[in-house]
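Minimal example, chain plus alpha-D-glucopyranose.
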Amino acid sequence: MKILFLNPAGLIGGAERVLLDVIASLRAARPDWPLALIAAADGDLVGAARALGAEVSVVAFPRSLAVVGDAGVGGTALSYRWPLGLAGRLAAAAPAVALYRRRLRSAIAAATPDLVHTNGFKMHVLGAWAAPREIPLLWHIHDFVSTRPLMSRLLRAHARRCAAIIANSHSVADDVRAVLGRRPPVFTVYNAIDLAKFAPAGALLDLDALAGMPPLGAGGVRVGIVATMARWKGHETFLRALAMLPAAAPVRGYVIGGPRYETAGSQYTGAELRALAMKVGVAERVGFTGFVSAVAPAMRALDIVVHASTEPEPFGLVIAEAMACGRAVIASAAGGAAEIIEDGIDALTHRPGDASALARLIAQLAGDAALRQRLGHAAALASARRFARPRLAADLAPIYCAVVERS
Ligand code: GLC
């Protein structure tokens, strides 16, 4: 069986890390299945997928298509941007989209896949437009759909073309069903991670040096948020929580990550976050590392990993990764994130956006090394059960086979 993946970005964000893990897992379990990927931009994803043995080509989005998106319209964003221009931008992109569809169609035909697996909203729609009718299409949905009005409409309009949907959590699966109804069938396949890479033991990153800060003294506790700069990831909640800690608390905060995706307006810039840190009075106790590719060494260098999304998190890959690294995790408990942890056993939780609750938990953990250790140990054990990579192929292969048989 030959599977062709379509991905709307070339950079490696959460959905792309999962795609790479899917490819690695299938490679190991089904070495006889050829795997191919078409990415809509060049970037780290291309080399990483090739290194795993996939046949990769880039069919680049025209600029007008790369920047258009409605992630800022609904609930997954603050009201900072009401995209008056979205309809206009879409209309302006129409001729380029028509051209792109033709190029994508010939690239798909040339790859001769048995099944097309799309890995992001734009590719769900473009895949439906471009994939030859006889090739079944499977949508892998990583985000809530109902909060995106335009995407909801587009997916509804093309749902008949899709043979099956993979959702990364039950919360996302329920949301997809609420938008699309009973067809196509939706299967929850939780993400998995590379437990050899995300493990309690291993290299550490010097976060202080990266952030240009003096080394933190003995007894200091490092607490960090590891996330893209998407506004709903809760950097603001994190900075405000740090501002509520007693000045004498031996805690240093770290903002790890940088802007990634191209969709305009949906992210903070580093400068904006630094200004916010200044405004709430924590500029001295927060380091900004910028984008870090060595995520596991960065997490291992932290004592506490904070996940602070202000909206329900579809899955929350960083939570799984930090747990697998044996860290004490504080997560914002809503959506898929709440499904993958056991509050008080392998992580602590706060309500999305509740900076005071987050501050209390940071203070509690900062003052209790034994609790940090207990949570971290339980988290590493739970990860081995929940997030081992071979499960991806075990979950997906039967779905692929059923879909291809039915077509
Ligand atoms: C998206 C979701 C995130 C999830 C990732 C991988 O980025 O927002 O919650 O972890 O996809 O599925």
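The chain has a mean pLDDT of 93. The first helix runs from residue 14 to 29.
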